[in-house]
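Work package 3, deliverable 3.1, input record:
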Amino acid sequence: MSDPENNSVETTRAGGASRRTSSSQTYSVISPAYEHREIVVAQGIEFQNHQLPDDEKIPEGIQSMLPDLTIAGDGSASYTNHRQRVRFTIRVVDTKSDYKAALETAGIHVIYDGHARYGRGPCFGTDDSPGEDWGNGSDPNNSGIWRMAYPYLAVPVEDILHHEYTTAPVIADGSPPPRAECHPEIRARYRRLRSYTLEQLAPARPPETESPLTNFVTGASIGPHTEFWGFNRRRKRYVVLHADWENTATDPMDLGGTDLQCKVFCHFGCSTFRHNYPVLRNLAQWQRTETDRFAYWTTASSWGLVTGRWIYYLLTYRERNAYQSWRPSLQYAVRRMRRYLRGRGFRII
Amino acid sequence: MPVEHKVKQGECISSIAYKYGFFPDTLQQDAGNSDLKSLRVDCDIMNPGDVIHVPDKTPRIEEVPTDQRQTFLRKGIPAYLKLQLLDGEQQPCSNVDFTLSFSDKTISDSTDIDGYIDKPIPPDTQAVKLTMDIDGNTIEYDIPLGNIDPIEETRGIQERLHNLGYDCGSIDGRYGDKTRSLIKHFQHQQELEVTGDYSDETKEKLLEVHGS
């Protein structure tokens, strides 16, 4: 639409006009084109609007900072920035299939806001009570984890027991999983990997007669003597799981089964830069270009106000940005977020 | 023989009348077009597929002396390009110099205080290029003529939204998510109930704001 070299000539194809008769009193209006940008916020399990304090709800929390933001009856929001010449639409989704559909929509900005599940990927569910939604999902198309992990990662045994989801730990019947395919947390403890029975991972407590993990470990021929890879860290026992990003247990609800067409991919769970950045950029080869395939992450434990603030800064960027690279406005949001988060122990990167 | 002319994209009453050698008013007032006239309130805006009845020409006999040179002038009625230019905040672009190019002609002038342009053009002009300078930036609009669809049609909605600066991307005639979200923006800007639905109230407001 505009000339990126000098930004002084702008050519727009109008929707059209009519040839009028001399007596006609009607006119066609012609007005400069504004770019339309869509932001989709995917709220993960335990991070849905009905579970959040008012200032963290999307889009209501943004409206409290930006009163001109309009919220429609269906919960979507719109905002026009005349300086940018951009009209923004914000909508919220909370299922795995809607998240996948958003990621497969060309040219939009998709933000996941929720648990990182120790790096396994965005996790969805309307009910945060214990169950499969913390794992592969009670309804695999709509709840549970959309996987984007290293092939192998470790979780504390207590996470499985606390959330009561079934999972597939890696059986220790030979060498440990290939080091290069492991999450950095395993790699850092690779020499300390040991094999454990379920009883050793989670001892039975009277009056129980078998490990409480028994109910949550899937796989044929699992028995009391079957051993799994694990390690100890900070007085917690971790077990190594099959996780992965393609051809996973949740395929096609995973990174490999999703044709990523979005322009911006934000993963605002905890420590996602460490967990998932290399998976997206190196394993899946979703490489950034000058004007496309942007991705943003958190460096440590995230918190609920991040997404609202991030969107607020994007909406209030004050330079002309329509029909140009989104990069300057995204860089502005990153700078402002870093200032906002100073002292909170993590950054957007 | 009368002709039933099926309207194609890019045609309007002026271009069709010109093609068959009639004045637009003649076709509009023809009894064979009474149904179409009631269907299309704005006769300058037709939908592709609309059928216009083109009557036979009525011969006119002029008696003139022989052995003298006679001059007959064919009356031509131009079509008019009638636009209102607004800025991004929907305020008129008042007294702005512009250049209008079409075929091999160029017209230079200024908008009036309300941002209006009203210029004659040949009825078969397919498109015009409007160039103007605002705040040091040159803005060019490529404006196809005669392809605005009726406001009841989804393409008509998209074309009007596009003219108003709501970028629909491709004008595809589908009331999809993008059109719906732009309607929400429009409803918000016009202080209507924001639903994304193309209600009668929204249609009326779109007609009012777009001007046609």
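The two ends of chain A are 30 Å apart (CA to CA).
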